[in-house]
């Protein structure tokens, strides 16, 4: 018996050494329960994804709502330039030909937007305001998407969208709205959002479509206000920046962006050629070159104009909020950190380049009109968001500390800029009360003749 027991123990030892051929009851339960537990983890992960997607949709809808409502603070009447665009658009809506029967020295898209507004909503100022609502909502959502997909923080994206609207619809530069810089800035933001999405897409077909959309919106911006070509150049380089994708794919992206940019230009040329007004548009382009001092020379050097433009830029853009100025300085510091730039695929560097080119665009005509300073608003606030992201990245590996820093950032912005919010609303109210008269009566009179 003892020898049999010994043989039995020895055989059990050999079995245990070779591997667990016969599993115990506890091992069987664990093997049966493990797929269930894995499925529970996957379900929990999927649930978190659904919750996060819902939260992002709510925040994006909030940004769109803020953009939609921001036009409510603007005076219901249009000032001189905005009224000229509205009058020309109303004439176009009645069948007159741009640059031949209706003359203005601005590019064609601003007049087309006003004409479409009157066609869709009738000959009322409310038609233009409704178009502006949709455009500002689109701009806020585009800004939200750019910041969210770049830095991965939807709360930062919402805060940036609010700050963008605060600067963009500021009474000192936005005034009565319906401006070329307003619509051009929206087109630029949509193009940047498409560029960010195109760089993320792994499917070549989807990336090419997004490149085409980006090129088309950049072209629309230039055909709304010519100086936007500088900003479009910076963001086109961001879109087409070489990566580990091969020369063939880069060439396809360049071609798709070029074809998209040609589409609005081809539509304008076709319209003007079919109505015999293409030569009139060429004359308008030459007039603009002379008007902006590029054809006949300039009395000041480039560096002198660069310096003289600092004061109006501070008044019409940088002086709006304290938190934005601090964030902008942090963004400039972030551009010197190579690790930060690599982490976000050099987006802060392109945002800084776009702001520099937008700053140059504001003093091309040397007249320092307030609405010119709407041009650098998108790139300026993007640099501000880069600075905030840089500060939050200091606590990247500590979620609690990062949440505390974000809360401190929001509280500091509210505390530092509390007086700015009231001053902005007061200036909007003063514009609504002081401006008198209505452009609608004059436009209707001329349209009936």
Architecture blueprint of SSEs:
Layout: H1 2-18, H2 25-69, H3 80-93, H4 108-121, H5 125-151, H6 154-168, H7 171-174, H8 180-200, H9 204-222, H10 228-240, H11 247-274, H12 278-291, H13 302-308, H14 310-318, H15 322-334, H16 338-343, H17 347-362, H18 377-393, H19 399-416, H20 418-434, H21 439-448
Helix pairs in contact: 2-5, 2-6, 3-4, 3-21, 4-5, 5-6, 5-8, 6-18, 8-9, 8-10, 9-10, 9-11, 10-17, 15-18, 17-18, 18-19
Describe this structure in words.
By secondary structure, the protein is an all-alpha fold. Helices cover 77% and strands 0% of the residues. It is built from 21 helices and no strands. It has helices at 2-18, 25-69, 80-93, 108-121, 125-151, 154-168, 171-174, 180-200, 204-222, 228-240, 247-274, 278-291, 302-308, 310-318, 322-334, 338-343, 347-362, 377-393, 399-416, 418-434, 439-448. It is globular, with a radius of gyration of 29 Å. 39% of the residues are buried. The model is unreliable at 1-41 and 436-449 (pLDDT under 50).
């Amino acid at each position: 018996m003892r020898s049999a027991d010994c043989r039995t123990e020895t055989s059990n030892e050999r079995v245990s050494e070779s591997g667990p051929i016969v599993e115990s009851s506890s091992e069987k339960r664990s093997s049966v329960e493990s797929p269930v537990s894995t499925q529970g983890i996957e379900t929990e992960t999927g649930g978190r994804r659904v919750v996060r997607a819902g939260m992002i949709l709510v925040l994006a809808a909030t940004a769109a709502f803020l953009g939609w409502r921001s036009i409510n603070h603007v005076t219901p009447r249009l000032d001189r330039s905005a009224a000229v665009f509205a009058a020309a658009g109303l004439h176009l809506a009645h069948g007159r030909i741009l640059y031949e029967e209706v003359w203005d020295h601005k590019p064609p898209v601003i007049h087309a937007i006003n004409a479409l507004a009157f066609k869709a909503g009738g000959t009322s100022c409310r038609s233009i305001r409704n178009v502006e609502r949709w455009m500002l909502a689109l701009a806020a959502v585009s800004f939200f998407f750019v910041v969210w997909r770049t830095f991965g923080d939807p709360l930062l994206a919402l805060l940036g969208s609010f700050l963008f609207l605060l600067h963009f619809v500021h009474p000192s530069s936005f005034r009565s709205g319906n401006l070329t810089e307003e619509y051009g800035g929206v087109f630029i933001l949509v193009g940047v959002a498409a560029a960010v999405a195109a760089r993320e897409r792994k499917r070549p077909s989807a990336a090419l479509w997004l490149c085409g959309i980006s090129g088309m919106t950049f072209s629309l911006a230039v055909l709304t206000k010519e100086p936007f070509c500088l900003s479009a150049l910076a963001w086109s380089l961001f879109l087409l920046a070489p990566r580990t994708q091969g020369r063939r794919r880069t060439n396809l992206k360049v071609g798709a962006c070029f074809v998209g940019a040609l589409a609005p230009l081809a539509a304008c040329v076709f319209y003007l050629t079919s109505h015999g007004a293409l030569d009139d548009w060429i004359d308008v382009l030459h007039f603009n070159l002379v008007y902006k001092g590029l054809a006949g020379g300039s009395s000041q050097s480039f560096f002198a104009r660069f310096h003289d433009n600092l004061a109006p830029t501070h008044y019409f853009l940088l002086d709006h909020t304290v938190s934005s100025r601090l964030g902008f300085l942090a963004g400039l510091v972030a551009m010197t950190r190579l690790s930060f730039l690599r982490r976000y695929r050099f987006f802060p560097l392109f945002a800084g380049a776009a702001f520099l080119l937008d700053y140059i665009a504001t003093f091309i005509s040397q007249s320092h009109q307030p609405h010119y300073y709407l041009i650098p608003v998108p790139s300026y606030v993007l640099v501000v968001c880069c600075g905030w992201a840089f500060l939050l990245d200091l606590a990247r590996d500590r979620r609690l500390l990062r949440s505390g820093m974000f809360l401190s950032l929001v509280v500091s912005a509210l505390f530092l800029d509390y007086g700015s919010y009231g001053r902005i609303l007061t200036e909007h109210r003063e514009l609504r009360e002081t401006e008198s008269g209505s452009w609608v009566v004059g436009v209707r009179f001329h349209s009936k003749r």
